Amino acid sequence: MSKVLIISSSPRRDGNSETLARYFAKGAEEAGHQTEIFILSGKTINFCRGCFACLKTGRCVIPDDAPEIVEKMHDADVLVFATPVYYYSVSGQLKTMLDRANPLYDTDYAFTKVYLLTSAAEEAPETTDGARTAVQGWVDCFPRCELVDTIFAGGVNDIGDIISHPALQQAYEAGRTI
User: Fold this and answer.
1) What are the pLDDT digits (tens) for 81-127?
2) For residue range 54-71, what is the model confidence (pLDDT) as tens digits?
3) In this model, does residue 34 exceed pLDDT 90?
4) What b/e readout covers 92-103, taking b as 16+ CB neighbours within 10 angstroms?
5) What is the largest CA-CA distance in the chain?
6) Buried b (16+ CB within 10 A) or exposed e, 10-48
7) Which residue, among 4, 3, 7, has the nearest Cα to 100 in the 3D structure?
8) For the structural domain made of 3-176, what CATH number should be given?
9) Mean per-residue pLDDT, 7-12
């Protein structure tokens, strides 16, 4: 049994990328994995200051919600990042959270697998390339970790547009086969 942490970064509650996250979680739970969905919306996550105090102390000095999330990331076996694609990259919320996960660098983190779940109004397959590059750049900083899969739901904009999109089944199956 793996511990799966899913971080949903959409500013819209119950949006399309959050729906992808829930389908992934359902598949993982049915396969016997322990899952938690952490929704960034409504959390206070300030920008990284670049002070590198976290590399000395193992914890960020900024008093907000990020250290709690980073601790959960450290202990998870599998990380899943769900994000809408904005201007061909991850949401600002996810980028800020990845920056704030700097205390994980050079630790004995548990995660070895990362999945990226994306949604966008644009339908072209290359729409998610920038988001994948952003997450792959983060993953590359963790030698025991790999970006296993990117699942893309294109052509979805309004909340609920994703219902019956084939990406939901892909997310569910990915969760089942961790």
Assistant:
1) 999 999 999 999 999 999 999 999 989 999 999 999 999 999 999 99
2) 988 989 999 999 999 999
3) yes
4) ebbbbbbebbbb
5) 48
6) beeeebbbbbbbbbbbbbbeeeebebebbbbeeeebeeb
7) 7
8) 3.40.50.360
9) 95
Instruction: State whether the Cα torsion 32-80-63-99 is positive or negative.
Output: positive
Instruction: Give the residue from 77, 69, 133, 79 showing the smallest Cα distance to 101.
Output: 69
Contact by Cβ (8 Å): 39, 65: no
Q: First CA to last CA across the chain, in angstroms? A: 10
Residue 62 in tokens: 């900024």
What are the tokens at 29?
A: 């739970």
d(CA 84, CA 19): 11
Read off the tokens for 72: 């959960």
Type of residue numbered 87:
Y
